[in-house]
Design a protein that fits this description.
The chain is an alpha+beta fold and 575 residues long. Helices cover 37% and strands 15% of the residues. Helix 11 packs antiparallel against helix 14 and helix 14 crosses helix 16.
Length: 575
Protein backbone atom coordinates (compact mmCIF):
# COMPACT_ATOMS: atom_id res chain seq x y z
CA UNK A 1 0.00 0.00 0.00
CA UNK A 2 1.46 3.35 -1.05
CA UNK A 3 2.25 5.83 1.71
CA UNK A 4 1.27 9.45 1.27
CA UNK A 5 3.95 11.79 -0.01
CA UNK A 6 4.48 14.99 1.94
CA UNK A 7 3.88 18.30 0.20
CA UNK A 8 4.67 21.25 2.40
CA UNK A 9 4.09 19.10 5.48
CA UNK A 10 0.61 18.05 4.30
CA UNK A 11 -0.30 14.55 3.04
CA UNK A 12 -0.41 14.31 -0.73
CA UNK A 13 -1.12 11.80 -3.48
CA UNK A 14 -0.35 13.60 -6.74
CA UNK A 15 -2.11 11.80 -9.59
CA UNK A 16 0.15 13.44 -12.16
CA UNK A 17 3.24 11.61 -10.86
CA UNK A 18 1.99 8.78 -8.61
CA UNK A 19 1.16 5.44 -10.30
CA UNK A 20 -2.57 4.73 -10.13
CA UNK A 21 -3.88 3.89 -13.62
CA UNK A 22 -3.66 0.14 -14.45
CA UNK A 23 -2.21 -0.59 -17.89
CA UNK A 24 -1.36 -3.54 -20.10
CA UNK A 25 1.79 -3.09 -22.17
CA UNK A 26 2.13 -4.34 -25.71
CA UNK A 27 4.17 -7.30 -24.43
CA UNK A 28 1.26 -8.18 -22.07
CA UNK A 29 3.03 -7.02 -18.90
CA UNK A 30 0.75 -5.24 -16.46
CA UNK A 31 1.45 -2.31 -14.18
CA UNK A 32 0.24 1.04 -12.89
CA UNK A 33 1.30 4.44 -14.22
CA UNK A 34 0.81 8.08 -13.34
CA UNK A 35 -1.05 10.44 -15.64
CA UNK A 36 2.22 11.84 -17.01
CA UNK A 37 3.63 8.38 -17.68
CA UNK A 38 0.45 7.13 -19.35
CA UNK A 39 0.75 9.82 -22.02
CA UNK A 40 4.53 9.56 -22.27
CA UNK A 41 4.34 5.79 -22.84
CA UNK A 42 1.06 5.66 -24.79
CA UNK A 43 2.68 4.19 -27.92
CA UNK A 44 4.06 1.26 -25.90
CA UNK A 45 0.82 0.49 -24.08
CA UNK A 46 -1.90 -1.80 -25.41
CA UNK A 47 -4.62 -0.26 -23.25
CA UNK A 48 -5.64 0.92 -19.83
CA UNK A 49 -7.72 -1.41 -17.67
CA UNK A 50 -9.88 -1.00 -14.62
CA UNK A 51 -11.21 -2.93 -11.66
CA UNK A 52 -14.42 -3.12 -13.72
CA UNK A 53 -15.02 -2.38 -17.42
CA UNK A 54 -17.08 0.65 -16.39
CA UNK A 55 -14.07 1.97 -14.51
CA UNK A 56 -11.97 1.62 -17.66
CA UNK A 57 -14.57 3.64 -19.58
CA UNK A 58 -14.58 6.35 -16.91
CA UNK A 59 -10.77 6.53 -16.83
CA UNK A 60 -10.59 6.70 -20.62
CA UNK A 61 -12.95 9.68 -20.63
CA UNK A 62 -10.71 11.38 -18.05
CA UNK A 63 -7.65 10.82 -20.28
CA UNK A 64 -9.57 12.12 -23.30
CA UNK A 65 -10.54 15.30 -21.44
CA UNK A 66 -6.87 15.86 -20.54
CA UNK A 67 -5.74 15.22 -24.14
CA UNK A 68 -8.42 17.48 -25.66
CA UNK A 69 -7.53 20.32 -23.30
CA UNK A 70 -3.75 19.94 -23.36
CA UNK A 71 -3.63 19.85 -27.17
CA UNK A 72 -6.61 22.20 -27.55
CA UNK A 73 -8.23 20.19 -30.28
CA UNK A 74 -8.48 18.62 -32.67
CA UNK A 75 -9.95 21.65 -34.38
CA UNK A 76 -10.56 19.75 -37.60
CA UNK A 77 -9.64 16.63 -39.58
CA UNK A 78 -6.38 18.16 -40.85
CA UNK A 79 -5.08 18.69 -37.33
CA UNK A 80 -6.21 15.20 -36.35
CA UNK A 81 -4.30 13.76 -39.33
CA UNK A 82 -1.12 15.55 -38.21
CA UNK A 83 -1.44 14.01 -34.76
CA UNK A 84 -2.13 10.56 -36.22
CA UNK A 85 1.19 10.68 -38.08
CA UNK A 86 3.12 12.16 -35.14
CA UNK A 87 4.25 9.54 -32.59
CA UNK A 88 5.10 12.35 -30.18
CA UNK A 89 1.77 14.16 -30.38
CA UNK A 90 1.22 13.85 -26.61
CA UNK A 91 4.63 15.25 -25.62
CA UNK A 92 3.10 18.50 -24.34
CA UNK A 93 0.70 16.77 -21.94
CA UNK A 94 3.15 16.47 -19.00
CA UNK A 95 3.77 20.24 -19.06
CA UNK A 96 0.01 20.80 -19.11
CA UNK A 97 -0.43 18.51 -16.11
CA UNK A 98 2.35 20.32 -14.27
CA UNK A 99 0.48 23.60 -14.78
CA UNK A 100 -2.64 22.09 -13.18
CA UNK A 101 -1.12 19.67 -10.69
CA UNK A 102 -2.67 21.49 -7.71
CA UNK A 103 -6.07 20.19 -8.88
CA UNK A 104 -4.86 16.60 -9.26
CA UNK A 105 -3.90 15.98 -5.62
CA UNK A 106 -6.24 13.31 -4.23
CA UNK A 107 -5.58 14.36 -0.62
CA UNK A 108 -5.42 18.15 -0.86
CA UNK A 109 -7.37 19.61 2.09
CA UNK A 110 -8.79 22.51 0.08
CA UNK A 111 -9.38 21.27 -3.51
CA UNK A 112 -8.91 17.48 -3.50
CA UNK A 113 -9.20 15.87 -6.93
CA UNK A 114 -12.86 15.33 -7.93
CA UNK A 115 -13.91 16.03 -4.31
CA UNK A 116 -15.15 18.86 -2.11
CA UNK A 117 -12.80 19.98 0.64
CA UNK A 118 -14.44 19.89 4.07
CA UNK A 119 -17.58 18.12 2.86
CA UNK A 120 -19.45 16.89 5.93
CA UNK A 121 -22.81 15.84 7.31
CA UNK A 122 -24.47 17.64 10.18
CA UNK A 123 -23.36 14.78 12.45
CA UNK A 124 -19.87 14.45 10.96
CA UNK A 125 -20.63 10.90 9.87
CA UNK A 126 -18.14 8.89 7.81
CA UNK A 127 -19.46 5.98 5.74
CA UNK A 128 -17.97 2.70 4.53
CA UNK A 129 -16.25 2.62 1.15
CA UNK A 130 -19.03 0.37 -0.17
CA UNK A 131 -20.66 3.68 -1.11
CA UNK A 132 -18.19 4.18 -3.98
CA UNK A 133 -16.79 0.70 -4.73
CA UNK A 134 -19.16 -0.63 -7.37
CA UNK A 135 -18.23 -4.29 -7.01
CA UNK A 136 -19.74 -4.22 -3.52
CA UNK A 137 -23.05 -2.29 -3.78
CA UNK A 138 -24.34 -1.21 -0.41
CA UNK A 139 -26.10 -4.10 1.30
CA UNK A 140 -25.72 -6.72 -1.44
CA UNK A 141 -22.21 -7.56 -2.68
CA UNK A 142 -21.90 -7.73 -6.45
CA UNK A 143 -18.66 -9.67 -6.25
CA UNK A 144 -17.71 -11.61 -3.13
CA UNK A 145 -13.98 -10.84 -3.05
CA UNK A 146 -14.40 -8.22 -0.32
CA UNK A 147 -17.39 -9.40 1.67
CA UNK A 148 -18.93 -8.19 3.85
CA UNK A 149 -17.57 -4.65 3.28
CA UNK A 150 -14.65 -2.61 2.00
CA UNK A 151 -12.71 -1.55 5.06
CA UNK A 152 -9.73 0.17 3.45
CA UNK A 153 -8.34 1.11 0.05
CA UNK A 154 -4.93 2.15 -1.15
CA UNK A 155 -4.76 5.66 -2.54
CA UNK A 156 -4.35 4.48 -6.15
CA UNK A 157 -7.47 2.31 -6.07
CA UNK A 158 -9.42 4.95 -4.16
CA UNK A 159 -8.62 7.48 -6.90
CA UNK A 160 -10.02 5.12 -9.53
CA UNK A 161 -13.27 4.66 -7.61
CA UNK A 162 -13.62 8.43 -7.18
CA UNK A 163 -13.56 8.82 -10.98
CA UNK A 164 -15.99 5.90 -11.31
CA UNK A 165 -18.42 7.36 -8.76
CA UNK A 166 -18.93 10.52 -10.79
CA UNK A 167 -19.61 8.40 -13.87
CA UNK A 168 -21.59 5.40 -12.58
CA UNK A 169 -22.74 5.99 -9.01
CA UNK A 170 -26.15 4.52 -8.22
CA UNK A 171 -29.30 6.49 -7.43
CA UNK A 172 -31.45 6.24 -4.30
CA UNK A 173 -31.61 8.24 -1.09
CA UNK A 174 -28.20 9.55 -0.02
CA UNK A 175 -26.96 11.40 3.01
CA UNK A 176 -27.56 15.14 3.04
CA UNK A 177 -24.55 17.38 3.60
CA UNK A 178 -24.09 20.75 5.22
CA UNK A 179 -24.43 23.53 2.66
CA UNK A 180 -26.64 21.64 0.21
CA UNK A 181 -30.06 23.29 0.11
CA UNK A 182 -31.56 20.18 -1.49
CA UNK A 183 -31.05 18.13 1.69
CA UNK A 184 -34.20 17.55 3.74
CA UNK A 185 -34.00 16.11 7.25
CA UNK A 186 -30.48 14.90 6.63
CA UNK A 187 -31.38 13.14 3.37
CA UNK A 188 -30.67 13.81 -0.31
CA UNK A 189 -33.42 12.39 -2.46
CA UNK A 190 -32.85 10.51 -5.74
CA UNK A 191 -31.51 12.45 -8.72
CA UNK A 192 -30.54 9.51 -10.92
CA UNK A 193 -27.34 7.61 -11.63
CA UNK A 194 -24.04 9.15 -12.73
CA UNK A 195 -24.05 10.45 -16.31
CA UNK A 196 -22.16 7.53 -17.89
CA UNK A 197 -24.56 5.13 -16.19
CA UNK A 198 -27.26 6.38 -18.54
CA UNK A 199 -25.22 5.59 -21.64
CA UNK A 200 -24.78 2.55 -23.79
CA UNK A 201 -21.09 3.38 -23.80
CA UNK A 202 -19.26 3.07 -27.14
CA UNK A 203 -15.61 3.73 -27.87
CA UNK A 204 -12.99 2.68 -30.39
CA UNK A 205 -9.91 0.63 -29.62
CA UNK A 206 -6.73 0.75 -31.71
CA UNK A 207 -3.59 -1.38 -31.45
CA UNK A 208 -2.04 0.96 -28.85
CA UNK A 209 -3.33 3.34 -26.23
CA UNK A 210 -2.04 6.21 -28.37
CA UNK A 211 -4.25 5.05 -31.25
CA UNK A 212 -7.22 4.48 -28.93
CA UNK A 213 -6.98 8.01 -27.54
CA UNK A 214 -6.69 9.58 -31.00
CA UNK A 215 -9.49 7.50 -32.52
CA UNK A 216 -11.85 8.76 -29.80
CA UNK A 217 -10.76 12.41 -30.02
CA UNK A 218 -13.65 13.95 -31.94
CA UNK A 219 -13.03 17.33 -33.57
CA UNK A 220 -14.53 20.46 -32.04
CA UNK A 221 -17.06 20.64 -34.87
CA UNK A 222 -18.12 17.57 -36.85
CA UNK A 223 -21.18 16.69 -38.92
CA UNK A 224 -23.16 16.49 -35.67
CA UNK A 225 -21.06 17.24 -32.60
CA UNK A 226 -20.13 20.73 -31.46
CA UNK A 227 -18.07 22.12 -28.59
CA UNK A 228 -18.25 25.75 -27.55
CA UNK A 229 -15.12 27.93 -27.12
CA UNK A 230 -15.68 27.82 -23.36
CA UNK A 231 -15.43 24.02 -23.24
CA UNK A 232 -13.05 23.11 -20.38
CA UNK A 233 -12.65 20.31 -17.85
CA UNK A 234 -13.57 20.42 -14.18
CA UNK A 235 -10.05 21.30 -13.01
CA UNK A 236 -10.15 24.54 -15.02
CA UNK A 237 -13.41 25.61 -13.41
CA UNK A 238 -14.10 26.96 -9.96
CA UNK A 239 -13.96 24.21 -7.30
CA UNK A 240 -17.34 22.76 -6.43
CA UNK A 241 -19.07 23.55 -3.17
CA UNK A 242 -21.35 21.14 -1.29
CA UNK A 243 -24.43 22.22 -3.24
CA UNK A 244 -25.12 22.14 -6.98
CA UNK A 245 -23.52 24.65 -9.31
CA UNK A 246 -25.86 27.13 -11.05
CA UNK A 247 -28.00 25.19 -13.52
CA UNK A 248 -26.32 24.81 -16.89
CA UNK A 249 -25.76 22.34 -19.72
CA UNK A 250 -22.35 20.97 -20.75
CA UNK A 251 -20.69 23.01 -23.49
CA UNK A 252 -18.45 20.29 -24.95
CA UNK A 253 -16.72 16.98 -24.42
CA UNK A 254 -14.12 18.29 -21.94
CA UNK A 255 -16.93 19.60 -19.77
CA UNK A 256 -19.08 16.50 -20.20
CA UNK A 257 -16.32 13.91 -19.65
CA UNK A 258 -15.46 15.52 -16.28
CA UNK A 259 -18.98 16.44 -15.19
CA UNK A 260 -19.17 16.58 -11.40
CA UNK A 261 -22.31 14.54 -10.87
CA UNK A 262 -21.47 13.79 -7.26
CA UNK A 263 -20.06 15.55 -4.21
CA UNK A 264 -17.74 13.40 -2.17
CA UNK A 265 -14.82 13.49 0.22
CA UNK A 266 -12.46 10.69 1.16
CA UNK A 267 -11.35 10.09 4.75
CA UNK A 268 -7.85 8.72 5.10
CA UNK A 269 -4.79 8.26 7.28
CA UNK A 270 -1.14 7.63 6.43
CA UNK A 271 -1.81 4.07 5.28
CA UNK A 272 -4.81 4.59 3.00
CA UNK A 273 -8.48 5.53 2.66
CA UNK A 274 -10.95 4.19 5.24
CA UNK A 275 -14.21 6.10 4.68
CA UNK A 276 -16.17 8.48 2.47
CA UNK A 277 -18.93 11.08 2.45
CA UNK A 278 -21.01 10.91 -0.75
CA UNK A 279 -24.03 12.82 -2.02
CA UNK A 280 -25.49 14.23 -5.23
CA UNK A 281 -23.73 16.89 -7.28
CA UNK A 282 -24.70 18.67 -10.47
CA UNK A 283 -27.77 17.08 -12.12
CA UNK A 284 -27.72 16.57 -15.87
CA UNK A 285 -30.99 15.96 -17.76
CA UNK A 286 -30.82 13.20 -20.37
CA UNK A 287 -32.75 14.57 -23.37
CA UNK A 288 -31.08 16.01 -26.46
CA UNK A 289 -27.42 15.95 -25.57
CA UNK A 290 -26.63 14.10 -28.81
CA UNK A 291 -24.68 17.09 -30.13
CA UNK A 292 -22.40 16.97 -27.07
CA UNK A 293 -22.07 13.30 -26.09
CA UNK A 294 -20.31 11.20 -28.78
CA UNK A 295 -19.79 7.95 -26.88
CA UNK A 296 -23.27 6.40 -27.12
CA UNK A 297 -26.00 5.63 -29.64
CA UNK A 298 -29.06 7.86 -29.35
CA UNK A 299 -32.69 6.81 -29.84
CA UNK A 300 -35.65 9.01 -30.63
CA UNK A 301 -38.24 8.99 -27.82
CA UNK A 302 -41.83 9.72 -28.78
CA UNK A 303 -42.82 9.45 -25.10
CA UNK A 304 -40.37 12.21 -24.11
CA UNK A 305 -41.48 14.36 -27.05
CA UNK A 306 -45.04 14.20 -25.74
CA UNK A 307 -43.94 14.81 -22.16
CA UNK A 308 -41.66 17.76 -22.95
CA UNK A 309 -43.69 19.19 -25.80
CA UNK A 310 -40.68 19.06 -28.11
CA UNK A 311 -40.79 18.04 -31.80
CA UNK A 312 -37.69 15.83 -31.47
CA UNK A 313 -36.19 14.29 -28.35
CA UNK A 314 -33.25 11.89 -28.37
CA UNK A 315 -32.26 9.80 -25.37
CA UNK A 316 -29.15 7.65 -24.82
CA UNK A 317 -29.69 4.06 -25.94
CA UNK A 318 -28.66 1.67 -23.19
CA UNK A 319 -27.13 -1.75 -23.81
CA UNK A 320 -29.04 -4.97 -23.23
CA UNK A 321 -26.90 -7.35 -21.14
CA UNK A 322 -28.30 -10.42 -22.91
CA UNK A 323 -27.56 -9.09 -26.40
CA UNK A 324 -24.11 -9.50 -27.99
CA UNK A 325 -22.71 -6.40 -29.68
CA UNK A 326 -22.87 -7.85 -33.20
CA UNK A 327 -26.62 -8.34 -32.92
CA UNK A 328 -27.00 -4.57 -32.59
CA UNK A 329 -24.60 -3.76 -35.42
CA UNK A 330 -27.19 -1.70 -37.29
CA UNK A 331 -27.26 0.78 -34.38
CA UNK A 332 -23.48 1.11 -34.31
CA UNK A 333 -23.37 1.72 -38.05
CA UNK A 334 -26.41 3.99 -38.09
CA UNK A 335 -26.05 6.99 -40.37
CA UNK A 336 -27.87 10.22 -39.75
CA UNK A 337 -30.07 10.96 -42.79
CA UNK A 338 -29.59 14.31 -44.49
CA UNK A 339 -32.45 16.72 -45.11
CA UNK A 340 -32.48 15.71 -48.76
CA UNK A 341 -32.93 12.06 -47.82
CA UNK A 342 -35.90 12.38 -45.48
CA UNK A 343 -38.10 14.88 -43.71
CA UNK A 344 -38.66 12.49 -40.81
CA UNK A 345 -36.24 12.53 -37.88
CA UNK A 346 -34.04 9.44 -37.70
CA UNK A 347 -35.20 6.82 -35.17
CA UNK A 348 -31.58 6.39 -34.06
CA UNK A 349 -28.34 8.35 -34.27
CA UNK A 350 -25.08 6.44 -34.37
CA UNK A 351 -22.35 6.92 -31.80
CA UNK A 352 -20.44 10.10 -32.56
CA UNK A 353 -17.02 8.49 -32.22
CA UNK A 354 -17.91 6.07 -35.01
CA UNK A 355 -19.42 8.84 -37.14
CA UNK A 356 -16.17 10.79 -36.71
CA UNK A 357 -14.16 7.82 -37.98
CA UNK A 358 -16.63 7.51 -40.85
CA UNK A 359 -15.94 11.15 -41.68
CA UNK A 360 -12.17 10.57 -41.56
CA UNK A 361 -12.53 7.54 -43.81
CA UNK A 362 -15.05 9.00 -46.25
CA UNK A 363 -14.98 12.75 -46.71
CA UNK A 364 -11.40 13.28 -45.61
CA UNK A 365 -9.83 10.05 -46.91
CA UNK A 366 -7.40 10.06 -43.99
CA UNK A 367 -7.94 6.49 -42.76
CA UNK A 368 -7.40 3.81 -45.44
CA UNK A 369 -10.40 1.53 -46.02
CA UNK A 370 -8.48 -1.48 -44.70
CA UNK A 371 -7.64 0.13 -41.34
CA UNK A 372 -8.86 -2.16 -38.55
CA UNK A 373 -10.33 -1.13 -35.21
CA UNK A 374 -12.41 -2.62 -32.43
CA UNK A 375 -15.78 -1.16 -31.49
CA UNK A 376 -16.06 -1.60 -27.72
CA UNK A 377 -19.29 -1.33 -25.76
CA UNK A 378 -19.45 -0.86 -21.99
CA UNK A 379 -22.42 -0.19 -19.76
CA UNK A 380 -24.07 -0.77 -16.40
CA UNK A 381 -27.51 -2.32 -15.92
CA UNK A 382 -29.13 -1.05 -12.71
CA UNK A 383 -31.81 -2.70 -10.63
CA UNK A 384 -34.19 -1.87 -7.75
CA UNK A 385 -34.92 1.74 -8.70
CA UNK A 386 -31.32 2.20 -9.90
CA UNK A 387 -30.01 1.75 -6.37
CA UNK A 388 -27.73 -1.19 -7.24
CA UNK A 389 -25.76 -2.37 -10.26
CA UNK A 390 -27.15 -5.70 -11.42
CA UNK A 391 -24.93 -6.37 -14.43
CA UNK A 392 -21.96 -4.98 -16.32
CA UNK A 393 -22.00 -5.04 -20.13
CA UNK A 394 -18.64 -5.43 -21.88
CA UNK A 395 -18.16 -6.56 -25.48
CA UNK A 396 -16.07 -5.67 -28.52
CA UNK A 397 -16.26 -6.23 -32.25
CA UNK A 398 -13.36 -6.08 -34.69
CA UNK A 399 -14.03 -4.59 -38.12
CA UNK A 400 -12.46 -2.57 -40.94
CA UNK A 401 -12.97 1.14 -41.56
CA UNK A 402 -14.59 0.36 -44.90
CA UNK A 403 -17.75 -0.62 -42.99
CA UNK A 404 -18.07 3.04 -42.00
CA UNK A 405 -17.41 4.43 -45.48
CA UNK A 406 -20.59 6.30 -46.48
CA UNK A 407 -19.57 6.43 -50.14
CA UNK A 408 -19.27 2.64 -50.32
CA UNK A 409 -22.12 1.40 -48.09
CA UNK A 410 -22.29 -2.10 -49.60
CA UNK A 411 -19.96 -3.60 -47.01
CA UNK A 412 -21.97 -2.21 -44.09
CA UNK A 413 -25.24 -3.28 -45.71
CA UNK A 414 -24.00 -6.85 -46.13
CA UNK A 415 -22.81 -6.92 -42.51
CA UNK A 416 -26.23 -5.76 -41.29
CA UNK A 417 -28.06 -8.19 -43.57
CA UNK A 418 -25.90 -11.02 -42.26
CA UNK A 419 -27.16 -10.18 -38.75
CA UNK A 420 -30.71 -10.34 -40.11
CA UNK A 421 -29.85 -13.76 -41.60
CA UNK A 422 -28.81 -14.93 -38.14
CA UNK A 423 -31.96 -13.52 -36.53
CA UNK A 424 -34.23 -15.29 -39.00
CA UNK A 425 -32.33 -18.57 -38.72
CA UNK A 426 -32.54 -18.51 -34.93
CA UNK A 427 -36.27 -17.72 -35.18
CA UNK A 428 -36.70 -20.85 -37.30
CA UNK A 429 -34.75 -22.82 -34.69
CA UNK A 430 -36.99 -21.46 -31.95
CA UNK A 431 -40.08 -22.46 -33.91
CA UNK A 432 -38.71 -25.98 -34.22
CA UNK A 433 -38.30 -26.12 -30.44
CA UNK A 434 -41.90 -24.91 -30.06
CA UNK A 435 -43.24 -27.54 -32.46
CA UNK A 436 -41.36 -30.31 -30.65
CA UNK A 437 -42.77 -29.13 -27.32
CA UNK A 438 -46.31 -28.94 -28.73
CA UNK A 439 -45.93 -32.45 -30.10
CA UNK A 440 -45.58 -33.68 -26.51
CA UNK A 441 -48.02 -31.23 -24.90
CA UNK A 442 -45.22 -29.43 -23.02
CA UNK A 443 -44.81 -25.71 -22.29
CA UNK A 444 -43.35 -23.83 -25.27
CA UNK A 445 -41.71 -20.66 -23.90
CA UNK A 446 -38.84 -22.41 -22.12
CA UNK A 447 -37.82 -24.48 -25.17
CA UNK A 448 -38.06 -21.43 -27.44
CA UNK A 449 -35.87 -19.32 -25.14
CA UNK A 450 -33.26 -22.06 -24.76
CA UNK A 451 -33.19 -22.59 -28.52
CA UNK A 452 -32.60 -18.88 -29.06
CA UNK A 453 -29.75 -18.87 -26.55
CA UNK A 454 -28.22 -21.97 -28.11
CA UNK A 455 -28.57 -20.64 -31.66
CA UNK A 456 -27.09 -17.20 -30.99
CA UNK A 457 -24.35 -18.75 -28.89
CA UNK A 458 -23.35 -21.07 -31.72
CA UNK A 459 -23.35 -18.22 -34.28
CA UNK A 460 -21.46 -15.75 -32.10
CA UNK A 461 -17.84 -16.67 -32.82
CA UNK A 462 -18.45 -17.51 -36.52
CA UNK A 463 -20.11 -14.13 -37.14
CA UNK A 464 -17.33 -12.20 -35.42
CA UNK A 465 -14.74 -14.04 -37.52
CA UNK A 466 -16.76 -13.49 -40.70
CA UNK A 467 -17.12 -9.75 -39.97
CA UNK A 468 -13.42 -9.33 -39.28
CA UNK A 469 -12.66 -10.75 -42.75
CA UNK A 470 -15.38 -8.78 -44.54
CA UNK A 471 -13.24 -5.66 -44.92
CA UNK A 472 -10.68 -7.60 -46.95
CA UNK A 473 -13.23 -9.28 -49.21
CA UNK A 474 -13.26 -8.14 -52.83
CA UNK A 475 -16.87 -9.32 -53.27
CA UNK A 476 -19.04 -8.60 -50.20
CA UNK A 477 -21.99 -10.34 -51.88
CA UNK A 478 -20.11 -13.60 -52.13
CA UNK A 479 -18.74 -13.15 -48.61
CA UNK A 480 -22.29 -12.90 -47.28
CA UNK A 481 -23.25 -16.01 -49.26
CA UNK A 482 -20.51 -17.85 -47.39
CA UNK A 483 -22.01 -16.63 -44.12
CA UNK A 484 -25.48 -17.86 -45.10
CA UNK A 485 -24.01 -21.26 -45.94
CA UNK A 486 -22.14 -21.44 -42.62
CA UNK A 487 -25.19 -20.27 -40.65
CA UNK A 488 -27.38 -22.85 -42.40
CA UNK A 489 -25.00 -25.64 -41.47
CA UNK A 490 -24.69 -24.50 -37.83
CA UNK A 491 -28.41 -24.05 -37.21
CA UNK A 492 -29.31 -27.26 -39.08
CA UNK A 493 -27.02 -29.27 -36.81
CA UNK A 494 -28.54 -27.76 -33.69
CA UNK A 495 -32.00 -28.51 -35.06
CA UNK A 496 -31.06 -32.12 -35.71
CA UNK A 497 -29.84 -32.39 -32.13
CA UNK A 498 -33.08 -30.90 -30.78
CA UNK A 499 -35.06 -33.46 -32.77
CA UNK A 500 -32.91 -36.30 -31.50
CA UNK A 501 -33.25 -35.07 -27.91
CA UNK A 502 -37.04 -34.74 -28.17
CA UNK A 503 -37.40 -38.48 -27.65
CA UNK A 504 -40.12 -41.00 -28.27
CA UNK A 505 -43.02 -38.84 -27.11
CA UNK A 506 -42.33 -36.26 -29.82
CA UNK A 507 -41.84 -39.01 -32.39
CA UNK A 508 -45.30 -40.37 -31.60
CA UNK A 509 -46.82 -36.87 -31.52
CA UNK A 510 -50.41 -35.82 -30.95
CA UNK A 511 -53.34 -34.07 -32.59
CA UNK A 512 -53.43 -30.28 -32.32
CA UNK A 513 -55.89 -27.70 -33.58
CA UNK A 514 -54.30 -25.19 -35.96
CA UNK A 515 -57.30 -22.95 -36.51
CA UNK A 516 -57.63 -24.53 -39.95
CA UNK A 517 -58.50 -27.96 -38.64
CA UNK A 518 -56.81 -30.76 -36.77
CA UNK A 519 -53.21 -31.72 -37.51
CA UNK A 520 -51.13 -34.65 -36.34
CA UNK A 521 -47.91 -32.97 -35.12
CA UNK A 522 -44.86 -35.11 -34.40
CA UNK A 523 -41.09 -34.75 -34.70
CA UNK A 524 -41.08 -35.90 -38.34
CA UNK A 525 -43.57 -33.19 -39.26
CA UNK A 526 -41.64 -30.60 -37.22
CA UNK A 527 -38.41 -31.59 -38.99
CA UNK A 528 -39.95 -31.10 -42.44
CA UNK A 529 -41.18 -27.66 -41.44
CA UNK A 530 -37.79 -26.77 -39.99
CA UNK A 531 -35.83 -27.78 -43.09
CA UNK A 532 -38.25 -26.00 -45.41
CA UNK A 533 -38.18 -22.72 -43.44
CA UNK A 534 -34.42 -22.77 -42.91
CA UNK A 535 -33.92 -23.21 -46.62
CA UNK A 536 -36.34 -20.39 -47.29
CA UNK A 537 -34.51 -17.83 -45.11
CA UNK A 538 -30.92 -18.92 -45.84
CA UNK A 539 -31.16 -20.87 -49.07
CA UNK A 540 -29.54 -24.25 -49.60
CA UNK A 541 -25.84 -24.21 -48.58
CA UNK A 542 -24.67 -25.14 -52.08
CA UNK A 543 -27.00 -22.67 -53.75
CA UNK A 544 -25.74 -19.89 -51.48
CA UNK A 545 -22.29 -20.04 -52.99
CA UNK A 546 -23.43 -20.32 -56.59
CA UNK A 547 -26.05 -17.58 -56.76
CA UNK A 548 -25.97 -14.94 -54.02
CA UNK A 549 -28.41 -12.61 -55.74
CA UNK A 550 -31.32 -15.04 -55.43
CA UNK A 551 -30.98 -15.54 -51.70
CA UNK A 552 -32.60 -12.41 -50.34
CA UNK A 553 -36.02 -14.01 -49.75
CA UNK A 554 -37.11 -12.85 -46.31
CA UNK A 555 -39.58 -14.48 -43.90
CA UNK A 556 -41.06 -12.93 -40.79
CA UNK A 557 -40.86 -16.09 -38.70
CA UNK A 558 -43.08 -16.73 -35.74
CA UNK A 559 -44.13 -19.69 -33.71
CA UNK A 560 -47.13 -21.86 -32.94
CA UNK A 561 -49.73 -22.01 -35.71
CA UNK A 562 -47.47 -20.03 -38.08
CA UNK A 563 -44.88 -22.80 -37.79
CA UNK A 564 -47.56 -25.32 -38.68
CA UNK A 565 -48.53 -23.37 -41.79
CA UNK A 566 -44.92 -23.41 -42.89
CA UNK A 567 -44.82 -27.14 -42.23
CA UNK A 568 -47.85 -27.52 -44.46
CA UNK A 569 -46.05 -25.57 -47.18
CA UNK A 570 -43.05 -27.85 -46.83
CA UNK A 571 -45.27 -30.93 -47.02
CA UNK A 572 -47.04 -29.52 -50.07
CA UNK A 573 -43.73 -28.80 -51.77
CA UNK A 574 -42.67 -32.41 -51.25
CA UNK A 575 -45.89 -33.74 -52.71
Amino acid sequence: MTDTQSMGGLPSFDLTCEPWIPVIRRDDRQGELSLCDVFAQASGLARIVGDLPTQEFALLRLLLAIAHDALDGPQDADQWAEWWEDERCFDTVPDYLEDHRDRFDLLCPDVPFYQVGGLRTSRDEVFPLNRIVADVPNGEPFFTSRMPSVVRLGFAEAARWVVHAHAYDTSGIKTGVVGDSRAKNGKAYPLGVGWAGNLGGVFVEGDTLRETLLLNMVARHTNRHHSDPDDRPAWRREPCGPGPAPERRPVGVRDLYTWQGRRLRLHFDGAGVHGVVLTYGDPLPLPNLHEREPMTVWRRSKAQEKKLGEPQVYMPKEHKPERAVWRGLSSLLAERPTASQTTEAAPELGAGVLEWIAQLATAEGILPRGTRFRARIVGAAYGTQQSVIDEIVDDRLSMAVVLLNRRDPWYAQQAIRAVADADEAVTVLGDLAVDLARATGADTEGPRRRAYERGYGALDAPYRSWLEKLGGATDPDRHRSQWRSDAHRIIRRIGEQLIADAGNAAWQGRTINTGKGDLWLNSAYAERSFRFRLGKVLGHPLDSMSNASTLDTQDDGGGGPESTSHAEQAEGAQT
